[in-house]
Amino acid sequence: MEKENRYKAFLEDVRTFVSQDRIYVDELRRLAWGTDAGFYRLVPQIVIRSENEQEVSKLLRIAYRHELPVTFRAAGTSLSGQAISDSILIVAGKHWERYSISPDHEQITLQPGIIGQRVNEILAPYKRKFAPDPASVKSAMVGGIVMNNASGMNCGTHANSDRVLLSARLILPNGTILDTGSEASRAQFRSSHTSFISTIEAIRNRILADETLVARIRYKYSIKNVMGLNLLPFILFDNPFDIIAHLLVGSEGTLAFLSEVTMKTEYDYPHKASAMLYFKDIKEACRAVVAMKGLMSSEGTPIVFGAELLDHKSLASVNDTTGEGLTAVLTETKACTAEELKIRIDTITETLAAFDTYLPPYFTDRAEEYSKYWAIRSGIFPSVGGTRQPGTTCLIEDVAFHIADLPEATAELQALIARHGYDDACIYGHALEGNYHFIINQSFSTEPEVERYALLMEDVIKLVIDKYNGSLKAEHGTGRNMAPFVRYEWGEVAYQFMKEVKQLFDPKGLLNPGVIFNDDPLCHIKNFKPLPLTHPAVDKCIECGFCEINCLTCGFTLSSRQRIVVQREISRLKQSGSNPQLLEKLEKQYQYPGNETCAGDGLCSLSCPMGINTGTLTHVLREAKFPIGSFAYNIGNFAANHFRGIKGSIRPVLRLANTAHGIVGTKNMQHIAKGMHQWMGLPLWTPAMPKAYKIDKELVKKSPSATNDPLKVVYFPSCINQTMGLPRQSPTAQPLVNKMLTLLQKAGYEVIFPREMDKLCCGTIWESKGMPDIADRKAAELETALWEASEQGRYPVLCDQSPCLHRMRETISRMKLYEPAEFISVFLTDKLTFTRTDRPVALHITCSMRRMGLADTIMALAKRCSTHVLVPEEVGCCGFAGDKGFTHPEVNTYALRKLRPQIEAANIPIGYSNSRTCEIGLTTNAGIPYVSIVYLVNECTTSK
After folding, report:
1. Distance between start and end Cα atoms, the chain
2. What is the pLDDT of residue 395?
3. Which partner from 205, 227, 615, 771 sits 20 to 30 angstroms from 63, CA to CA?
4. Using CA atoms, how far apart are residues 420 and 397, in angstroms rounded to an integer?
């Protein structure tokens, strides 16, 4: 009760300066945000989405006063239990994305919420890159990368976070802010924290006086090692502020909050080549790696930049069919010139001639080829996890050996894992650095299974530490997973120095308790995360978080991963019957953030190595909510059976809205519409709302000619474009259907419309509402009509709306189906003369285009038409999601929050896409009109 009162007092204080919408105390969001990529679970009491440095400083001061533990979280891709809490969780993500680059581009200052891959995108124009290269770089954020000392596939100890860090801004547990890169901040801190600085200096001096310890530190950090706190700064730096900054690296939030970091950037070689090398024996593979490690250029620099080992189980998880029982080594070399690259490839190939490779080495310098290799490597962990037995937990361990020990140690590790009965385990990782990950799929449902895991870890520790003096954690952080073994690996003397550092920074022990330092010798086999069966669409998910980069509601309501987390807990509660009150709360609380705001766009599947589409789960949940025979289902069924009439009834509503707009004016109309949306729940009207439209009957009535002219196309205008025209304030005069006909006729095509097309639909409307049988019925009706119109597939079929075309391709396979960009690119470009305009244009690539693999197609088409095409950065799904932009416009607004500043900065007057509903939302949120790509092509072309 006493601690409960302290949490209440903490909340009272916090609510005076943190908005309520960023404080989570409900069961659903505490569960959702309390889950990371690791295999442990704790549920925080309070979650706070922090916004800035001063706010975090206040939060820590208040927590310090009330003596309440605090844990920090960025992307939640950590694997060892270091980003979870049963107390207060402070999230530093979406609001922490500022950066600055030095004039020479050799330094970059970053806030902790920027995703690693985004840093690479920022630096790419300057031929620089972010040195740390974890497999999760497309999802992990800078804060987590630095605070775990992440390194990765092309990053050894020479370029990990510790080696490239220059300075840090940090917040101590009592709220004190220190910028180690600022002379003024250092002077102020030295004055106010004299004892702190003198203690750092005293620890430094005592460590340097112990030659045995110094030698051990050098040896331990000559390979990747993140076990315990980072002692290397005490022997590398003299300045206490440099020591303080580098102590944060790998501290996993146990010492301070990292609010900003300045790091050296790395040269990004323009010429690269990779090869997937196959060996019959894992020892032989490791011997080859040792040989490649020693290859040096004439300047004395390594010529092999990466060598990633994948054992036969890893290869099987990604469906590699090269051969049975093979071990692969994905190898990369880089150079400044093409000639130099060839020399390096030849050198490596000559070296490999001494080893028994299964196939001759083949290096490719084609990015489209080698990027597939590295994508496979990045996805190993989730892919292996996805092959686990249902109900088991996927665990990943992370060890390192000195390179000379690699062949023997690797074979022994493989045999050790098999000896403990982990037949489906795999070993893979950064062989060039002696760093391996091994994955096991483990059940913790019985005591014998828990004991089996404990015994495995005991033997791993004996092998790695006692026999080879390696690292029990090379780059994934100590976390809870290895906390009981820090003292064992480092010895009493080094461990006590770590404890002194912890006591200095965090005297009350409030920051991330249980991580790195844990007095419970069994903490690594407690608080395991349950993964109950929920639905086949998501049961393979290991909650790695890779999906979240593409989830538009991540950071707004729930992310795709969090939706799965909550539904799993709901399933567990249903199966166990253990807490009906909590079950009822979660089901009720899930409705808006989980169901109503999920766009169901499926982009999450593109960054998930298992291709899991959380939108499928959402559709399943909606289907359960609207079973056959329910009132909502009957309404949906009625609409499907009377679709022509339903569309006809929409047009008067659009005409009424347009008339009212003309009478009361834009500002008054917006005010009225906003009030009606908020108080009556009516769909939100915006100035981008189209006027009513109906296709001219004379166009439709025209019968196709009886000639055998191959230049014919079946054109199916989407329901939206049959009903909606252009908004009142539009840069173009003709509705899309008319403009499409103009373009097709310009290219010499005869257009065929399917019969009774005003009652046809692809079914997307019903699919999104959870009525798949009605959706499929409508798709079947459409297929029949298109089959007839195309003369049994003789002519291509064109639909002017990419989301509709995407569903058509999923349900119709016996015809060639196209949306505008691909159709124009395939059939019209040779019949038209393109004249590029110098007017800058914006391009929005819809979710459906990305999922169909047509992003490059529409981009190339836009570049045929304009010399300056902007695809705004960090804008994925627009969030309109059919009708969601009308019913839940806040989702659309959040999804496009980064759009307008880029449009304004580039002085873009108009944008293009190929989805009418997306264009409505884009126009509303960008401040410029968006129309179909067809308008741009028509403007920039003439007949040949």
Report:
1. 82
2. 83
3. 227
4. 15
Q: How confident is the model at residue 92 (pLDDT cuts 50, 70, 90)?
A: very high
| Buried b or exposed e, range 105-129, using 16+ CB within 10 angstroms | eebbbbbbbbbbebbbebbeeeebb
pLDDT value at position 382? 73
CA–CA distance, 161 with 163 (Å, rounded to integer): 6
pLDDT above 80 (res 378): no
* Cβ pair 354, 291 in contact under 8 A: yes
Question: Which residue from 944, 884, 895, 941 is spatially nearest to 922, judged by alpha carbons?
Answer: 895
Torsion, Cα 589 590 595 596, to 10 degrees, reads 20
703: pLDDT strictly greater than 80 = no
Beta strands in 625-770 (DSSP E): 690-692, 712-716, 724-727, 750-752
Helix 447-461 to helix 406-419 angle, to the nearest 10 degrees? 160
User: Coil, strand or helix: which one is 769?
Assistant: coil
Instruction: Please list the residues that pair with 309 across neighbouring strands.
Output: 329, 429
Residue 592 in tokens: 């808006």
Q: Are 67 and 6 in contact (CB under 8 A)?
A: yes
Are the beta carbons of 706 and 940 closer than 8 angstroms?
Answer: no
Q: Is the pLDDT of residue 706 over 60?
A: no
**Poorest-pLDDT segment among 317-326, 354-363, 713-722, 874-883:** 317-326
Residue 542 buriedness (CB in 10 A; 0-12 / 13-18 / 19+)? buried
Q: What is the DSSP letter of 126?
A: G
How many Cα atoms occupy the beta-carbon half-sphere of 935 within 13 Å?
22
Contacts for 778 with CB less than 8 Å, ≥ 6 apart: 640, 643, 760, 761, 762, 763, 766
Structure tokens at 713: 């196309």
Model confidence, pTM: 0.94
User: What's the pLDDT score for residue 704?
Assistant: 58
For 421, the 3-state DSSP assignment is coil
Using alpha carbons, select from 318, 383, 372, 307 the residue that is nearest to residue 152.
307
212 C-beta neighbours (distance < 10 Å), count = 9
Share of the chain above pLDDT 70, in %: 99
Interhelix angle for 560-576 vs 580-590, to 10°? 150
Predicted pLDDT at 85: 97
SS3 string, 537-591, reads CCCCCCCCCHHHHHCCCCCCCCCHHHHHHHHHHHHHHHHHCCCHHHHHHHHHHHH
The secondary structure of 19-79 as a DSSP string is: -GGGEE-SHHHHHHHT--SSSB----SEEEE--SHHHHHHHHHHHHHHT--EEEESS---S
On whether the CB atoms of residues 901 and 665 are closer than 8 A, the answer is no
Locate 329 and state its tokens. 């080594």
- CA 118/CA 133 separation, integer angstroms: 12
Per-residue pLDDT of 732-776, as tens digits, reads 889 999 999 999 999 999 999 999 999 999 999 999 999 999 999
**Cα–Cα distance between 351 and 292 in angstroms, integer?**
7
Q: What is the DSSP secondary-structure string of 142-154?
A: HHHHHHTT--BTT
* Of 872, 940, 929, residue with least CA distance to 903: 872
Q: Are strands 712-716 and 750-752 parallel, antiparallel or unpaired?
A: parallel
pLDDT tens digits along 205-231: 999 999 999 999 999 999 999 999 999
Tokens found for residue 711: 């230049």
CB of 816 within 8 A of CB of 853? no
Place of tokens 């070993």: 427
CA-CA distance, 294 to 432, in Å (whole number)?
A: 10
Residue-level pLDDT at 393: 79
Predicted confidence band of residue 320 (pLDDT cuts 50, 70, 90): confident
